[in-house]
Input
Amino acid sequence: MRFATFAPLVLVGLVSFFFVQSKQGDGGTLAARQQQAQALTPTAVANVVKAAPDPVTRAQGVQARCTPLGQGDLLNPWRCSISYASGRDIQYRVTIAASGSYIGDHELVHYRGQRYHDTGVISGCCVPVP
Output
């Protein structure tokens, strides 16, 4: 009688184990995904932030350079300078969220030899975070 009750429970447990194992892999899949996670680098941040539009022409940047100013996993805040085809070179103070989304405030605008302070904001997604 005990065997009749115990056997189906063992069978369900084994089937569940193999089902879950087949969906997760043997651990090698997880290890491979972790190894593929890119480190947060100035180039990775610049590649994403460069898409922020020029506040006047709405065109994407042609070049971006970013430097981390902080410490920790996300190195927040970052200073990013985006050059636009219009001749504007705009510096932003960028903060990256754990999700990879970012938000940045204009710090300084260089345009035709003049320096301007502006209050514009950029935001977007997604910086590859480790």
Summary: The first helix runs from residue 2 to 24. Residues 89 and 110 are 5 Å apart (CA to CA). The mean pLDDT is 80.
